[in-house]
Amino acid sequence: MELLSRVASISSPAVYFDPDNGQLTMSGESYPENTFEFYAPIISWLKTFIAEKDLAITLNLELAYLNTGSVKCLMDIFDLLEDAFQEGRKISVIWRYHQKNSRALETAEEFSEDLTLPFQIEAL
Questions:
Q1: Would the pTM count as exceeding 0.85?
Q2: CATH number for region 4-123
Q3: Annotated domain spans of the chain
């Protein structure tokens, strides 16, 4: 399985998913013109990773802003991780936000309330 890496743009986050260590990282802002087109390969990669690799997964997020479409796609990612967690996979999420960005904190808290997997929220 290959590394998934995307450079951030003004409207889309940087993405770095390493299949060798289970570290999945997304950072930046997320309001791409076609949100579902942007996230489809990420979700597909994650589905394949979960099916093919038996590694612990840590999702590291530092997302300053998400539009509605990005929230939906991120929930799809969380659903995949939650299912894997319920099946016994070691999964954790670490969401980092800048202290002055209360919206990012609220978004992280809303996501964490819907999940049973370990979910840390850390101020930078």
A1: yes
A2: 3.30.750.24
A3: 4-123
